[in-house]
């Protein structure tokens, strides 16, 4: 008598099916974590700006609100300058948002291993929810600023923690994380803009967005298949071996297994990293961090120092509309390239950096000499800028994960996350004199 198919099912096939399900859950979980981690960061400044405007004047217009919503700031505050500048460089807002993140990324990698991942995720979710509540019920400037700072703390600690967390999973989850962070820029801007556009107040919109921190908790605690080696609620044993090696080994493909087998006994040394070893790891990371920082310096120099000045008065689009389209195309470019790791990888990180610098030089000359005919020529350049930035981010962390020894990988992923924030902060500082120069003409 023929047995039911389920009885005769090949155990290997069942195992493969379970493995694919686990892999899909983990990829989706990291995608959602990336989206939630950066979402508050994207939304907070636009909401804070709207509320600050409301506090400053009762005559805030809907067009100003919509402009602010697209990437933290926008609009056109006319003055006597030919460039139709805002009174204060948009870099000022960028610095207020990035500096808390930069401080965390510079210091936390040396001590964060003492805090188990479960507590880290809870803290990030609480900080994000607090930022939404503070800005929503803000009655003074300091409350709005504090809300932005809390969002920055949540995003900074979350990024270095979730990048470190990827070492406990198969390497493909980096693609999910990168795609999710890219999606946050588009989703955050469009959702906030859409809800306020249909008539909801910024306060109600932010209260609705409290669902995001809960989605982060759901993704981590229920969607991810957490390996047994993960230090969830207590610090790992001081005599731990290479991070998650058994769990990770089980998920690696054949080629990665061969690479693992070739590792030397020295690379599998047990015990936590000493301060000297951590400094040695950081020295080795410079070949990744420097090109990543340069990409983001050039990228945000364009976004905060030049983009507002790329204004074409004879265009059918207003200054606010041109700026919004620049920001939208930039975010779409970032989303596309951060989602490309599954089909395209680039080890030549310095090439991406130099191409981004060329972008910045081209647009600086365009602002200075005004040789570009209209905004439609700028649109593909801005989209290309987003592609380069997103590609540099995901490829940097992919190759750090691939080329770093098992024992050093968790620290390396956290420490390298400072590259983009450092580049952004320096770009904000450099954008001030550039903005002042052109607006004084």
From TrEMBL:
Residues 244-270 are annotated as: Disordered. It is a multi-pass membrane protein. It is found in: Late endosome; Lysosome membrane. Its main location: other. SUPFAM superfamilies: MFS general substrate transporter. Residues 244-253 have a biased composition (Basic and acidic residues). The keyword Transmembrane applies. The chain crosses the membrane at residues 30-48, 117-135, 141-162, 174-192, 204-226, 349-371, 377-399, 411-432. One of its GO terms (biological process) is regulation of intracellular pH. Coiled coil: none annotated. Keywords: Endosome, Glycoprotein, Lipoprotein, Lysosome, Membrane, Methylation, Phosphoprotein, Prenylation, Transmembrane, Transmembrane helix, Transport. InterPro entries: Battenin_disease_Cln3, Battenin_disease_Cln3_subgr, MFS_trans_sf. Gene3D superfamilies: MFS general substrate transporter like domains. It comes from the Eukaryota. One of its GO terms (cellular component) is early endosome. Belongs to the battenin family. This is Battenin. It comes from Sander lucioperca. The gene is cln3.
């Amino acid at each position: 008598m023929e047995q039911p198919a389920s009885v005769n099912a090949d155990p290997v096939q069942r195992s493969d099916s379970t493995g694919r399900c686990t892999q899909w859950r983990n990829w989706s979980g990291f995608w959602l974590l990336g989206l939630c981690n950066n979402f508050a960061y994207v939304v907070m400044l636009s909401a804070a700006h709207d509320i600050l405007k409301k506090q400053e004047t009762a005559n805030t217009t809907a067009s100003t609100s919509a402009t602010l919503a697209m990437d933290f700031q926008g609009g056109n505050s006319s003055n006597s300058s030919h460039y139709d500048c805002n009174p204060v460089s948009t870099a000022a807002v960028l610095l207020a948002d990035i500096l808390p993140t930069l401080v965390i990324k510079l210091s936390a990698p040396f001590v964060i291993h003492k805090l188990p991942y479960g507590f880290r995720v809870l803290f990030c979710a609480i900080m994000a929810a607090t930022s939404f509540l503070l800005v929503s019920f803000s009655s003074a400037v300091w409350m709005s600023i504090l809300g932005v700072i809390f969002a920055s703390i949540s995003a900074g600690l979350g990024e270095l923690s979730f990048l470190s967390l990827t070492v406990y999973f198969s390497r493909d989850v980096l693609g999910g994380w990168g795609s999710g962070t890219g999606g946050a820029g588009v989703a955050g801007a469009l959702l906030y803009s859409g809800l306020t556009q249909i008539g909801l107040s910024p306060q109600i919109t932010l209260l609705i967005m409290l669902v995001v921190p809960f989605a982060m908790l759901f993704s981590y605690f229920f969607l991810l298949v957490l390996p047994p080696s993960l230090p969830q609620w207590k610090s790992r044993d001081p005599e731990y071996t290479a991070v998650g090696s058994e769990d990770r080994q089980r998920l690696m493909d054949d080629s990665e297994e061969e690479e693992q087998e070739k590792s030397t006994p020295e690379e599998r040394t047990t015990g936590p990293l000493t301060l000297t070893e951590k400094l040695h790891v950081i020295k080795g990371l410079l070949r990744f961090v420097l090109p990543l920082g340069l990409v983001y310096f050039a990228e945000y120099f364009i976004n905060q120092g030049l983009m507002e000045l790329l204004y074409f008065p004879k265009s059918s689009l207003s200054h606010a509309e041109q700026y919004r389209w620049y920001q939208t195309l930039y975010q779409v470019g970032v989303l596309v390239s951060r989602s490309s790791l599954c089909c395209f990888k680039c080890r030549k990180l310095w090439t991406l950096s130099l191409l981004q610098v060329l972008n910045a030089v081209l647009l600086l000359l365009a602002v200075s000499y005004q040789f570009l005919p209209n905004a439609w020529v700028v649109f593909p350049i801005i989209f290309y800028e987003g592609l380069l930035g997103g590609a540099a981010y995901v490829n940097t962390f992919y190759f750090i994960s691939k080329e770093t020894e098992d024992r050093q990988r968790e620290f390396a992923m956290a420490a390298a996350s400072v590259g983009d924030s450092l580049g952004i902060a320096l770009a904000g500082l450099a954008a001030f004199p550039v903005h002042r120069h052109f607006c004084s003409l």
